[in-house]
Amino acid sequence: MRKKLQVEAICQGTVIDHIPAGQGIKILDRLRLLDSNASITVGFNLPSKDQGHKDIIKVTSRKFTEQEANQLALFAPSATINVIDNYEVVDKFKMALPESLQGAFTCPNSNCITHNEPVDTHFYLREHNGDVRLKCKYCEKSFSKDIVAEL
Amino acid sequence: MENRLYKRDIISIADFDRKDLELVLETAAQLKNSPRPDLLQGKVIASCFFEASTRTRLSFETAVQRLGGTLIGFSDAGNTSAKKGETLADSVNIISSYTDAFVMRHPQEGSARLASEFSSVPVINGGDGSNQHPTQTLLDLFSIRECQGKLDGLKVAFVGDLKYGRTVHSLAQALCHFGAEFTFIAPKALAMPDYILEELDEKGIKYRFSDSIEETAPQVDIIYMTRVQKERFDETEYKHIASKYILDVESLKDAKENLKVLHPLPRVDEIAVEVDKTPYAYYFQQAENGVYARQALLALVLNEVV
């Protein structure tokens, strides 16, 4: 029996697969994918052999910058990025949590100097008891990733 | 001793390892014993206090002058271009081009780290908001070493506001390099924050909690007092808890002979004046030591060989 894809295949672009169910919307929003001209196909709560349920995002004719990939690792460390050319997967890589993130998020500390000055925010990342903590290079305060990313 | 601090920015106590700390303390002891009015000869130091301070600014400025240096700067940001809306980055860029080192205090967290990225000369942090105040920690360590003759394996009790007190956090972190054991005495609402306790756990540092200074005094070498700020509680609540965190002569009756009481000052009423006359009081010597600790830092940052 022919296996039918639940989300249509794309000719060229990037497929972010194995996104934990529920995180897909956040990724669309965070990476401002809807602001670009790229065609986007999404699937939420799809059945997954490994995860039970997963989200998937397919972006036509667009490559990800390193910073976008790093942000992605924060929301969905288990996700995979597939680079598609002519309907074939030509490159595939897993997310790895970066050591630091620059310019991606605002510091949740309202008295942090980065709110008033011409610098990019800079967070050092580390895993603690299963949570990812981000420590601001400037004000040295540590935050759970959810607090930083929800801003 | 190799000068590992030459040309370095002094921003956070977290940037110091044990050897760096020992170098500053050793140099401070030398300068206390034999003054060196030549070490900053010909150097101009910026003393920029974007937020008012008494002890920190005056002891920094004394330190510069005792080492033979000269000062430019301001004691509050009221009459500066910061008031006109200039960024800190621009202010630092310009002022650092006039000087050999940039001492600063600023009300926002992270300001000193940011300044170090725009300064052409070493930046010394005299306090950035609620974040760091590394020179206070260095003078605390210097005072502890001076009154105990050592830093390794001491038992230290912290009393009062352990939640908001940056001096307490930094000192606890610095003492981890020397295998200290801690007792924390604080009202629930002002307890030591979890992230500090997690750090202590990761480093295998022993600590316990107590609600009595009197019961703790016979077991520790240092009592580090801080002020419980009235404005954090309603009046009845404050009256109920405050007496527990006041140190008087009675609470020291069974204290160890070598016990010394420290306090970052200003004191309000958390140490009874009668304690000043006991051999346990060390907070005024501690404040004086601020000059030597700051001399040591300035000397090390600006001279390859001290």
From TrEMBL, chain A:
<comment type="similarity">
    <text>Belongs to the PyrI family.</text>
</comment>
<dbReference type="InterPro" id="IPR002801">
    <property type="entry name" value="Asp_carbamoylTrfase_reg"/>
</dbReference>
<dbReference type="InterPro" id="IPR020545">
    <property type="entry name" value="Asp_carbamoyltransf_reg_N"/>
</dbReference>
<dbReference type="InterPro" id="IPR020542">
    <property type="entry name" value="Asp_carbamoyltrfase_reg_C"/>
</dbReference>
<feature type="binding site">
    <location>
        <position position="139"/>
    </location>
    <ligand>
        <name>Zn(2+)</name>
    </ligand>
</feature>
<feature type="binding site">
    <location>
        <position position="112"/>
    </location>
    <ligand>
        <name>Zn(2+)</name>
    </ligand>
</feature>
<keyword id="KW-0808">Transferase</keyword>
<keyword id="KW-0862">Zinc</keyword>
<feature type="binding site">
    <location>
        <position position="136"/>
    </location>
    <ligand>
        <name>Zn(2+)</name>
    </ligand>
</feature>
<dbReference type="Pfam" id="PF02748">
    <property type="entry name" value="PyrI_C"/>
</dbReference>
<dbReference type="InterPro" id="IPR036792">
    <property type="entry name" value="Asp_carbatrfase_reg_C_sf"/>
</dbReference>
<keyword id="KW-0479">Metal-binding</keyword>
<dbReference type="GO" id="GO:0004070">
    <property type="term" value="F:aspartate carbamoyltransferase activity"/>
</dbReference>
<feature type="domain" description="Aspartate carbamoyltransferase regulatory subunit N-terminal">
    <location>
        <begin position="5"/>
        <end position="95"/>
    </location>
</feature>
<feature type="domain" description="Aspartate carbamoyltransferase regulatory subunit C-terminal">
    <location>
        <begin position="101"/>
        <end position="148"/>
    </location>
</feature>
<protein>
    <recommendedName>
        <fullName>Aspartate carbamoyltransferase regulatory chain</fullName>
    </recommendedName>
</protein>
<comment type="subunit">
    <text>Contains catalytic and regulatory chains.</text>
</comment>
<dbReference type="InterPro" id="IPR036793">
    <property type="entry name" value="Asp_carbatrfase_reg_N_sf"/>
</dbReference>
<keyword id="KW-0665">Pyrimidine biosynthesis</keyword>
<dbReference type="Pfam" id="PF01948">
    <property type="entry name" value="PyrI"/>
</dbReference>
<comment type="function">
    <text>Involved in allosteric regulation of aspartate carbamoyltransferase.</text>
</comment>
<feature type="binding site">
    <location>
        <position position="107"/>
    </location>
    <ligand>
        <name>Zn(2+)</name>
    </ligand>
</feature>
From TrEMBL, chain B:
<dbReference type="GO" id="GO:0004070">
    <property type="term" value="F:aspartate carbamoyltransferase activity"/>
</dbReference>
<dbReference type="Pfam" id="PF00185">
    <property type="entry name" value="OTCace"/>
</dbReference>
<comment type="similarity">
    <text>Belongs to the aspartate/ornithine carbamoyltransferase superfamily. ATCase family.</text>
</comment>
<feature type="binding site">
    <location>
        <position position="105"/>
    </location>
    <ligand>
        <name>carbamoyl phosphate</name>
    </ligand>
</feature>
<feature type="binding site">
    <location>
        <position position="133"/>
    </location>
    <ligand>
        <name>carbamoyl phosphate</name>
    </ligand>
</feature>
<dbReference type="InterPro" id="IPR036901">
    <property type="entry name" value="Asp/Orn_carbamoylTrfase_sf"/>
</dbReference>
<keyword id="KW-0808">Transferase</keyword>
<comment type="subunit">
    <text>Heterododecamer (2C3:3R2) of six catalytic PyrB chains organized as two trimers (C3), and six regulatory PyrI chains organized as three dimers (R2).</text>
</comment>
<feature type="binding site">
    <location>
        <position position="227"/>
    </location>
    <ligand>
        <name>L-aspartate</name>
    </ligand>
</feature>
<keyword id="KW-0665">Pyrimidine biosynthesis</keyword>
<dbReference type="InterPro" id="IPR006132">
    <property type="entry name" value="Asp/Orn_carbamoyltranf_P-bd"/>
</dbReference>
<dbReference type="Pfam" id="PF02729">
    <property type="entry name" value="OTCace_N"/>
</dbReference>
<feature type="domain" description="Aspartate/ornithine carbamoyltransferase carbamoyl-P binding">
    <location>
        <begin position="8"/>
        <end position="146"/>
    </location>
</feature>
<feature type="domain" description="Aspartate/ornithine carbamoyltransferase Asp/Orn-binding">
    <location>
        <begin position="152"/>
        <end position="300"/>
    </location>
</feature>
<dbReference type="InterPro" id="IPR006131">
    <property type="entry name" value="Asp_carbamoyltransf_Asp/Orn-bd"/>
</dbReference>
<feature type="binding site">
    <location>
        <position position="56"/>
    </location>
    <ligand>
        <name>carbamoyl phosphate</name>
    </ligand>
</feature>
<protein>
    <recommendedName>
        <fullName>Aspartate carbamoyltransferase</fullName>
        <ecNumber>2.1.3.2</ecNumber>
    </recommendedName>
</protein>
<dbReference type="InterPro" id="IPR002082">
    <property type="entry name" value="Asp_carbamoyltransf"/>
</dbReference>
<feature type="binding site">
    <location>
        <position position="136"/>
    </location>
    <ligand>
        <name>carbamoyl phosphate</name>
    </ligand>
</feature>
<dbReference type="InterPro" id="IPR006130">
    <property type="entry name" value="Asp/Orn_carbamoylTrfase"/>
</dbReference>
<feature type="binding site">
    <location>
        <position position="55"/>
    </location>
    <ligand>
        <name>carbamoyl phosphate</name>
    </ligand>
</feature>
<feature type="binding site">
    <location>
        <position position="265"/>
    </location>
    <ligand>
        <name>carbamoyl phosphate</name>
    </ligand>
</feature>
